[in-house]
TrEMBL record:
Residues 88-174 form the DUF7033 domain. It comes from the Bacteria. Pfam families: DUF7033. This is DUF7033 domain-containing protein. GO terms for biological process: carbohydrate metabolic process. InterPro entries: DUF7033, Glyco_hydro/deAcase_b/a-brl. It comes from Rufibacter tibetensis. Transmembrane segments: none annotated. Gene3D superfamilies: Glycoside hydrolase/deacetylase.
Length: 440
Protein backbone atom coordinates (compact mmCIF):
# COMPACT_ATOMS: atom_id res chain seq x y z
CA UNK A 1 0.00 0.00 0.00
CA UNK A 2 3.04 2.26 0.29
CA UNK A 3 3.17 2.49 -3.51
CA UNK A 4 -0.38 3.83 -3.55
CA UNK A 5 0.40 6.40 -0.88
CA UNK A 6 3.61 7.61 -2.53
CA UNK A 7 1.92 7.97 -5.92
CA UNK A 8 -1.06 9.95 -4.63
CA UNK A 9 0.97 12.10 -2.24
CA UNK A 10 3.42 13.01 -5.01
CA UNK A 11 0.58 14.58 -7.00
CA UNK A 12 -1.00 16.25 -3.98
CA UNK A 13 2.30 18.06 -3.39
CA UNK A 14 2.35 19.34 -6.98
CA UNK A 15 -0.94 21.22 -6.55
CA UNK A 16 -0.59 23.13 -3.27
CA UNK A 17 1.94 25.19 -1.36
CA UNK A 18 2.44 22.82 1.59
CA UNK A 19 4.58 22.72 4.72
CA UNK A 20 7.89 20.97 4.14
CA UNK A 21 8.41 18.36 5.37
CA UNK A 22 4.74 17.40 5.45
CA UNK A 23 4.04 15.18 8.47
CA UNK A 24 1.40 12.82 7.06
CA UNK A 25 0.94 9.05 7.17
CA UNK A 26 -1.26 6.38 5.65
CA UNK A 27 -2.63 4.37 8.55
CA UNK A 28 -2.61 4.79 12.32
CA UNK A 29 0.69 3.08 13.11
CA UNK A 30 2.64 6.23 14.05
CA UNK A 31 2.29 9.69 15.53
CA UNK A 32 2.11 11.86 12.41
CA UNK A 33 0.25 15.15 12.59
CA UNK A 34 -2.10 13.90 9.84
CA UNK A 35 -3.17 10.27 9.63
CA UNK A 36 -5.30 8.85 6.83
CA UNK A 37 -7.46 5.87 7.64
CA UNK A 38 -6.34 2.87 5.59
CA UNK A 39 -9.08 0.50 4.47
CA UNK A 40 -8.79 -3.27 4.81
CA UNK A 41 -9.61 -3.82 1.14
CA UNK A 42 -7.98 -6.69 -0.72
CA UNK A 43 -8.99 -5.18 -4.05
CA UNK A 44 -5.45 -4.26 -5.10
CA UNK A 45 -4.20 -7.79 -4.64
CA UNK A 46 -6.73 -9.01 -7.21
CA UNK A 47 -7.28 -8.30 -10.88
CA UNK A 48 -10.79 -6.88 -10.99
CA UNK A 49 -11.34 -3.79 -13.12
CA UNK A 50 -13.92 -2.15 -10.88
CA UNK A 51 -14.85 -2.30 -7.20
CA UNK A 52 -18.10 -4.06 -6.44
CA UNK A 53 -19.69 -1.06 -4.76
CA UNK A 54 -19.39 2.66 -4.27
CA UNK A 55 -20.80 4.84 -1.53
CA UNK A 56 -21.29 8.59 -1.70
CA UNK A 57 -20.53 11.26 0.85
CA UNK A 58 -21.10 15.00 0.67
CA UNK A 59 -18.13 17.37 0.72
CA UNK A 60 -19.12 21.04 0.79
CA UNK A 61 -22.15 20.50 -1.42
CA UNK A 62 -20.63 17.95 -3.80
CA UNK A 63 -21.35 14.23 -3.50
CA UNK A 64 -18.10 12.27 -3.84
CA UNK A 65 -17.75 8.55 -4.64
CA UNK A 66 -15.72 6.41 -2.23
CA UNK A 67 -14.77 2.94 -3.43
CA UNK A 68 -13.18 1.19 -0.49
CA UNK A 69 -15.28 2.11 2.55
CA UNK A 70 -18.43 0.62 4.00
CA UNK A 71 -19.70 3.48 6.17
CA UNK A 72 -20.37 7.23 5.96
CA UNK A 73 -21.42 8.13 9.49
CA UNK A 74 -18.10 9.72 10.46
CA UNK A 75 -17.09 13.27 9.65
CA UNK A 76 -14.45 13.66 6.96
CA UNK A 77 -11.98 14.92 9.54
CA UNK A 78 -11.61 14.62 13.29
CA UNK A 79 -8.95 16.00 15.61
CA UNK A 80 -7.72 14.23 18.70
CA UNK A 81 -6.97 15.87 22.04
CA UNK A 82 -3.28 15.80 21.17
CA UNK A 83 -3.92 17.70 17.93
CA UNK A 84 -3.60 14.82 15.47
CA UNK A 85 -5.94 15.20 12.50
CA UNK A 86 -7.53 12.00 11.27
CA UNK A 87 -8.90 11.65 7.73
CA UNK A 88 -11.64 9.12 8.33
CA UNK A 89 -11.96 7.79 4.76
CA UNK A 90 -9.37 6.08 2.61
CA UNK A 91 -8.87 8.74 -0.05
CA UNK A 92 -5.52 7.22 -0.99
CA UNK A 93 -6.97 3.94 -2.29
CA UNK A 94 -9.80 5.69 -4.15
CA UNK A 95 -7.45 8.34 -5.51
CA UNK A 96 -4.92 5.79 -6.73
CA UNK A 97 -7.63 3.70 -8.35
CA UNK A 98 -8.84 6.62 -10.47
CA UNK A 99 -5.57 8.42 -11.16
CA UNK A 100 -3.45 5.41 -12.09
CA UNK A 101 -5.95 4.07 -14.64
CA UNK A 102 -6.36 0.77 -12.79
CA UNK A 103 -9.72 0.08 -14.43
CA UNK A 104 -8.24 0.32 -17.91
CA UNK A 105 -5.33 -2.00 -17.20
CA UNK A 106 -7.48 -4.75 -15.74
CA UNK A 107 -10.46 -4.42 -18.07
CA UNK A 108 -10.61 -6.56 -21.20
CA UNK A 109 -13.14 -4.26 -22.85
CA UNK A 110 -11.79 -2.58 -25.99
CA UNK A 111 -13.29 -0.89 -29.04
CA UNK A 112 -12.35 -1.47 -32.68
CA UNK A 113 -9.18 0.60 -32.24
CA UNK A 114 -8.07 -1.22 -29.10
CA UNK A 115 -9.14 1.68 -26.87
CA UNK A 116 -10.77 1.40 -23.47
CA UNK A 117 -14.38 2.51 -24.08
CA UNK A 118 -15.99 5.31 -22.13
CA UNK A 119 -19.14 3.18 -21.73
CA UNK A 120 -17.11 0.64 -19.73
CA UNK A 121 -15.70 3.19 -17.28
CA UNK A 122 -16.68 3.95 -13.70
CA UNK A 123 -17.01 7.56 -14.85
CA UNK A 124 -19.82 6.57 -17.21
CA UNK A 125 -21.35 4.06 -14.82
CA UNK A 126 -21.60 6.57 -11.98
CA UNK A 127 -21.93 9.70 -14.13
CA UNK A 128 -18.99 11.76 -12.90
CA UNK A 129 -16.99 12.20 -16.12
CA UNK A 130 -17.09 16.01 -15.76
CA UNK A 131 -16.07 15.98 -12.07
CA UNK A 132 -12.33 15.80 -11.26
CA UNK A 133 -12.94 13.56 -8.25
CA UNK A 134 -9.26 13.24 -7.32
CA UNK A 135 -9.03 17.01 -7.03
CA UNK A 136 -11.94 16.91 -4.58
CA UNK A 137 -10.11 14.25 -2.55
CA UNK A 138 -7.14 16.60 -2.47
CA UNK A 139 -9.37 19.38 -1.16
CA UNK A 140 -10.22 17.16 1.80
CA UNK A 141 -6.52 16.53 2.38
CA UNK A 142 -5.82 20.24 2.11
CA UNK A 143 -8.42 20.91 4.81
CA UNK A 144 -6.68 18.32 6.98
CA UNK A 145 -3.33 20.07 6.53
CA UNK A 146 -4.85 23.44 7.36
CA UNK A 147 -6.41 22.04 10.53
CA UNK A 148 -3.23 20.24 11.61
CA UNK A 149 -0.87 23.14 10.93
CA UNK A 150 -3.19 26.05 11.69
CA UNK A 151 -2.39 27.85 8.47
CA UNK A 152 -4.00 28.60 5.14
CA UNK A 153 -2.89 26.33 2.31
CA UNK A 154 -3.08 27.88 -1.15
CA UNK A 155 -3.17 26.36 -4.59
CA UNK A 156 -0.33 26.90 -7.03
CA UNK A 157 -1.01 29.09 -10.06
CA UNK A 158 0.33 29.14 -13.61
CA UNK A 159 2.80 32.01 -13.90
CA UNK A 160 0.30 34.07 -11.92
CA UNK A 161 -2.75 32.93 -13.90
CA UNK A 162 -5.51 31.07 -12.01
CA UNK A 163 -5.75 28.22 -14.52
CA UNK A 164 -3.97 27.07 -17.65
CA UNK A 165 -5.21 26.33 -21.14
CA UNK A 166 -3.25 24.20 -23.59
CA UNK A 167 -4.38 24.65 -27.18
CA UNK A 168 -3.26 21.76 -29.35
CA UNK A 169 -3.64 20.81 -32.98
CA UNK A 170 -3.20 17.30 -34.40
CA UNK A 171 -2.07 17.58 -38.00
CA UNK A 172 -3.63 14.52 -39.62
CA UNK A 173 -4.70 15.95 -42.96
CA UNK A 174 -3.47 19.05 -44.75
CA UNK A 175 -3.50 17.94 -48.40
CA UNK A 176 -6.90 16.40 -49.06
CA UNK A 177 -9.64 19.01 -48.64
CA UNK A 178 -9.96 19.03 -52.42
CA UNK A 179 -10.93 15.37 -52.29
CA UNK A 180 -12.79 15.04 -48.97
CA UNK A 181 -14.85 18.19 -49.47
CA UNK A 182 -14.66 18.38 -53.25
CA UNK A 183 -16.15 14.99 -54.10
CA UNK A 184 -19.43 15.60 -52.18
CA UNK A 185 -19.62 19.07 -53.75
CA UNK A 186 -19.34 17.55 -57.22
CA UNK A 187 -21.96 14.93 -56.38
CA UNK A 188 -24.33 17.70 -55.30
CA UNK A 189 -23.76 19.61 -58.55
CA UNK A 190 -21.65 22.33 -56.92
CA UNK A 191 -19.13 22.40 -59.76
CA UNK A 192 -17.83 25.83 -58.81
CA UNK A 193 -16.82 24.70 -55.30
CA UNK A 194 -15.19 21.58 -56.64
CA UNK A 195 -13.15 23.56 -59.16
CA UNK A 196 -12.15 26.06 -56.47
CA UNK A 197 -10.86 23.31 -54.18
CA UNK A 198 -9.12 21.53 -57.05
CA UNK A 199 -7.45 24.77 -58.16
CA UNK A 200 -6.21 25.43 -54.64
CA UNK A 201 -4.72 21.96 -54.57
CA UNK A 202 -3.08 22.41 -57.98
CA UNK A 203 -1.45 25.61 -56.75
CA UNK A 204 -0.06 23.82 -53.70
CA UNK A 205 -2.49 25.58 -51.35
CA UNK A 206 -4.96 22.91 -50.31
CA UNK A 207 -7.73 24.37 -48.16
CA UNK A 208 -6.48 22.28 -45.23
CA UNK A 209 -2.91 23.48 -45.62
CA UNK A 210 -4.01 26.32 -43.38
CA UNK A 211 -1.31 26.77 -40.75
CA UNK A 212 -1.30 30.54 -41.19
CA UNK A 213 -5.04 30.66 -40.52
CA UNK A 214 -4.58 28.66 -37.33
CA UNK A 215 -1.74 30.99 -36.32
CA UNK A 216 -3.92 34.04 -36.89
CA UNK A 217 -6.51 32.68 -34.49
CA UNK A 218 -3.81 32.02 -31.92
CA UNK A 219 -2.42 35.53 -32.35
CA UNK A 220 -5.85 36.95 -31.53
CA UNK A 221 -5.55 35.15 -28.18
CA UNK A 222 -1.87 35.99 -27.70
CA UNK A 223 -1.41 32.22 -27.38
CA UNK A 224 1.21 29.67 -28.32
CA UNK A 225 0.03 26.16 -29.15
CA UNK A 226 1.29 22.59 -29.44
CA UNK A 227 1.24 21.11 -32.96
CA UNK A 228 1.35 17.31 -33.24
CA UNK A 229 2.67 16.18 -36.63
CA UNK A 230 1.89 12.66 -37.88
CA UNK A 231 5.07 11.11 -39.37
CA UNK A 232 3.49 8.03 -40.98
CA UNK A 233 1.64 8.10 -44.32
CA UNK A 234 0.69 4.50 -45.00
CA UNK A 235 -2.61 2.99 -43.92
CA UNK A 236 -2.59 0.68 -40.90
CA UNK A 237 -5.03 -2.23 -40.92
CA UNK A 238 -7.28 -0.21 -43.22
CA UNK A 239 -7.13 2.98 -41.12
CA UNK A 240 -5.59 6.18 -42.50
CA UNK A 241 -2.53 7.95 -41.18
CA UNK A 242 -1.26 11.27 -42.59
CA UNK A 243 -2.11 12.56 -46.06
CA UNK A 244 1.24 14.40 -46.23
CA UNK A 245 4.95 13.65 -45.98
CA UNK A 246 6.39 15.09 -42.79
CA UNK A 247 9.89 14.92 -44.29
CA UNK A 248 9.02 16.99 -47.37
CA UNK A 249 10.50 20.46 -47.76
CA UNK A 250 7.00 21.95 -47.75
CA UNK A 251 6.09 20.42 -44.39
CA UNK A 252 9.50 21.02 -42.85
CA UNK A 253 9.28 24.70 -43.77
CA UNK A 254 5.99 24.96 -41.87
CA UNK A 255 7.39 23.08 -38.88
CA UNK A 256 10.41 25.39 -38.72
CA UNK A 257 8.27 28.48 -39.15
CA UNK A 258 5.88 27.43 -36.37
CA UNK A 259 8.74 26.63 -34.04
CA UNK A 260 10.44 29.96 -34.70
CA UNK A 261 7.14 31.69 -33.87
CA UNK A 262 7.24 30.10 -30.42
CA UNK A 263 4.84 27.22 -30.95
CA UNK A 264 5.64 23.69 -29.80
CA UNK A 265 6.22 20.83 -32.24
CA UNK A 266 5.43 17.34 -30.97
CA UNK A 267 4.92 13.81 -32.31
CA UNK A 268 1.53 12.45 -33.29
CA UNK A 269 2.27 8.74 -32.94
CA UNK A 270 0.65 6.77 -35.76
CA UNK A 271 -1.67 3.77 -35.63
CA UNK A 272 0.16 0.92 -33.95
CA UNK A 273 2.97 3.02 -32.49
CA UNK A 274 1.49 3.05 -28.97
CA UNK A 275 2.59 -0.58 -28.61
CA UNK A 276 5.67 -0.51 -30.84
CA UNK A 277 8.72 1.22 -29.40
CA UNK A 278 10.84 1.01 -32.56
CA UNK A 279 8.05 2.42 -34.69
CA UNK A 280 7.48 5.39 -32.40
CA UNK A 281 11.23 5.97 -32.15
CA UNK A 282 11.46 6.11 -35.94
CA UNK A 283 8.56 8.55 -36.12
CA UNK A 284 10.12 10.78 -33.47
CA UNK A 285 13.34 10.89 -35.50
CA UNK A 286 11.47 11.82 -38.70
CA UNK A 287 10.58 15.22 -37.29
CA UNK A 288 14.31 16.04 -37.42
CA UNK A 289 14.11 18.39 -34.43
CA UNK A 290 14.18 17.69 -30.68
CA UNK A 291 10.68 17.00 -29.37
CA UNK A 292 9.49 16.25 -25.85
CA UNK A 293 5.81 15.37 -26.29
CA UNK A 294 3.52 12.88 -27.98
CA UNK A 295 -0.14 12.23 -28.61
CA UNK A 296 -1.31 9.08 -30.36
CA UNK A 297 -3.43 9.14 -33.51
CA UNK A 298 -7.11 8.30 -32.82
CA UNK A 299 -6.18 8.56 -29.11
CA UNK A 300 -4.94 4.98 -29.19
CA UNK A 301 -3.42 4.13 -25.81
CA UNK A 302 -2.69 0.67 -24.48
CA UNK A 303 -2.52 0.71 -20.66
CA UNK A 304 -0.39 -2.42 -20.68
CA UNK A 305 2.36 -1.30 -23.06
CA UNK A 306 2.10 2.43 -23.81
CA UNK A 307 3.43 3.82 -20.49
CA UNK A 308 6.61 1.81 -20.94
CA UNK A 309 6.98 2.79 -24.61
CA UNK A 310 6.79 6.55 -24.07
CA UNK A 311 8.88 6.36 -20.91
CA UNK A 312 11.68 4.36 -22.51
CA UNK A 313 11.83 6.77 -25.45
CA UNK A 314 12.34 9.65 -23.03
CA UNK A 315 9.18 11.61 -23.76
CA UNK A 316 8.64 14.28 -21.14
CA UNK A 317 4.92 14.02 -21.64
CA UNK A 318 2.06 12.29 -23.42
CA UNK A 319 -1.31 13.93 -24.01
CA UNK A 320 -3.52 11.11 -25.27
CA UNK A 321 -5.72 10.26 -22.29
CA UNK A 322 -9.15 11.62 -22.98
CA UNK A 323 -12.22 9.68 -23.99
CA UNK A 324 -13.04 10.27 -27.67
CA UNK A 325 -16.71 9.63 -26.87
CA UNK A 326 -17.11 12.30 -24.19
CA UNK A 327 -15.39 15.42 -22.87
CA UNK A 328 -14.25 15.45 -19.26
CA UNK A 329 -11.69 13.79 -17.02
CA UNK A 330 -10.69 10.28 -18.01
CA UNK A 331 -8.57 9.82 -14.88
CA UNK A 332 -10.82 12.09 -12.79
CA UNK A 333 -8.09 14.70 -12.40
CA UNK A 334 -7.61 18.17 -13.91
CA UNK A 335 -3.82 18.50 -13.54
CA UNK A 336 -0.88 16.71 -15.18
CA UNK A 337 0.06 13.40 -13.57
CA UNK A 338 2.73 10.75 -13.95
CA UNK A 339 1.77 7.67 -15.95
CA UNK A 340 1.75 4.50 -13.87
CA UNK A 341 3.40 1.32 -15.14
CA UNK A 342 1.44 -1.63 -13.74
CA UNK A 343 3.97 -4.13 -15.06
CA UNK A 344 6.75 -2.65 -12.94
CA UNK A 345 4.44 -1.50 -10.17
CA UNK A 346 5.76 2.04 -10.12
CA UNK A 347 5.34 5.49 -11.56
CA UNK A 348 7.08 6.37 -14.83
CA UNK A 349 9.05 9.54 -15.53
CA UNK A 350 6.56 10.55 -18.23
CA UNK A 351 3.86 13.08 -17.43
CA UNK A 352 0.36 12.70 -18.77
CA UNK A 353 -1.33 15.99 -19.63
CA UNK A 354 -4.89 14.69 -19.99
CA UNK A 355 -7.01 15.68 -22.97
CA UNK A 356 -10.32 17.22 -21.87
CA UNK A 357 -12.02 17.99 -25.16
CA UNK A 358 -11.53 16.97 -28.78
CA UNK A 359 -13.43 18.73 -31.55
CA UNK A 360 -14.48 15.44 -33.18
CA UNK A 361 -16.18 14.38 -29.94
CA UNK A 362 -18.76 17.11 -30.36
CA UNK A 363 -20.56 15.94 -33.48
CA UNK A 364 -19.16 12.60 -34.67
CA UNK A 365 -22.06 10.22 -35.51
CA UNK A 366 -20.81 7.77 -32.87
CA UNK A 367 -20.20 10.42 -30.21
CA UNK A 368 -22.19 13.39 -28.86
CA UNK A 369 -23.83 14.90 -31.96
CA UNK A 370 -24.14 18.37 -30.43
CA UNK A 371 -25.24 21.37 -32.43
CA UNK A 372 -22.80 24.33 -32.40
CA UNK A 373 -25.06 26.40 -30.12
CA UNK A 374 -25.17 23.55 -27.60
CA UNK A 375 -21.41 23.16 -27.20
CA UNK A 376 -20.41 25.98 -24.85
CA UNK A 377 -23.35 25.43 -22.46
CA UNK A 378 -22.56 21.70 -22.41
CA UNK A 379 -18.87 22.06 -21.56
CA UNK A 380 -19.10 25.06 -19.19
CA UNK A 381 -19.67 22.93 -16.04
CA UNK A 382 -16.47 21.02 -16.85
CA UNK A 383 -14.57 24.26 -17.46
CA UNK A 384 -15.83 25.65 -14.15
CA UNK A 385 -14.40 22.62 -12.36
CA UNK A 386 -10.99 23.30 -13.90
CA UNK A 387 -11.24 26.94 -12.88
CA UNK A 388 -12.24 25.95 -9.35
CA UNK A 389 -9.15 23.79 -8.90
CA UNK A 390 -6.61 26.01 -10.71
CA UNK A 391 -6.30 23.18 -13.19
CA UNK A 392 -5.35 22.67 -16.81
CA UNK A 393 -7.74 22.58 -19.75
CA UNK A 394 -6.34 20.77 -22.79
CA UNK A 395 -8.20 21.30 -26.05
CA UNK A 396 -7.59 19.46 -29.33
CA UNK A 397 -8.79 21.30 -32.42
CA UNK A 398 -7.71 19.79 -35.74
CA UNK A 399 -6.45 22.23 -38.36
CA UNK A 400 -9.10 21.20 -40.90
CA UNK A 401 -11.81 22.35 -38.48
CA UNK A 402 -10.61 25.94 -38.77
CA UNK A 403 -11.67 25.82 -42.43
CA UNK A 404 -15.09 25.92 -44.03
CA UNK A 405 -14.63 22.32 -45.15
CA UNK A 406 -14.34 20.54 -41.82
CA UNK A 407 -16.51 20.45 -38.73
CA UNK A 408 -19.70 22.49 -39.21
CA UNK A 409 -19.26 25.72 -37.31
CA UNK A 410 -15.80 24.59 -36.23
CA UNK A 411 -14.09 27.98 -36.29
CA UNK A 412 -16.97 29.68 -34.49
CA UNK A 413 -16.97 27.03 -31.75
CA UNK A 414 -13.22 27.36 -31.27
CA UNK A 415 -13.57 31.11 -30.95
CA UNK A 416 -16.46 30.89 -28.48
CA UNK A 417 -14.63 28.40 -26.25
CA UNK A 418 -11.33 30.28 -26.23
CA UNK A 419 -12.97 33.68 -25.73
CA UNK A 420 -14.84 32.27 -22.73
CA UNK A 421 -11.57 30.99 -21.29
CA UNK A 422 -9.88 34.31 -21.94
CA UNK A 423 -12.62 36.16 -20.07
CA UNK A 424 -12.13 33.82 -17.11
CA UNK A 425 -8.48 34.87 -16.89
CA UNK A 426 -6.73 31.78 -18.22
CA UNK A 427 -3.09 31.63 -19.15
CA UNK A 428 -2.40 30.07 -22.56
CA UNK A 429 0.64 27.78 -22.54
CA UNK A 430 2.11 25.05 -24.69
CA UNK A 431 1.83 21.61 -23.13
CA UNK A 432 5.59 21.52 -22.59
CA UNK A 433 5.39 24.81 -20.67
CA UNK A 434 2.65 23.41 -18.41
CA UNK A 435 4.75 20.35 -17.63
CA UNK A 436 7.76 22.47 -16.72
CA UNK A 437 5.65 24.54 -14.34
CA UNK A 438 4.25 21.37 -12.80
CA UNK A 439 7.75 20.03 -12.21
CA UNK A 440 8.99 23.27 -10.62
Amino acid sequence: MQVLFDYVLFHFKRVYHLPEPLDISYGFQNSSRIQIRQSSTTFFSQKEAQPESVIWKDWQGTSLPLFFVSFTELDWLTQTASGTVVVNYDLIASGFYLLSGWQEFYSSNRDQFGRFPYASSVQARHKFITKPIVNYYFEVLRAAVELAYGQKITQKTWNGKPFATCLSHDIDYCQSAWKVAGKPALQKGRLGLFLKLAAQKALGKDAWFNFQQVEQELEQLNAKASFFFLPEQGNYQGHPNADYNVCSNLTQQQINRLQQAGHEIAVHGSHGSSINLEQLKSEKEKLAIPVTGNRFHYLRFDPDRTPEVVDELGFTYDSTLGFPEHFGFRNSYCHPFKLFNFNSGQSTDTWEVPLNLMDVTLNHPNYLQLMPLQVLPAITPMLNEIIRFNGVFTLLWHNENFSAYGLQGGLQMFQEITQFLQKQGTGFFTIHEVVKQTEA
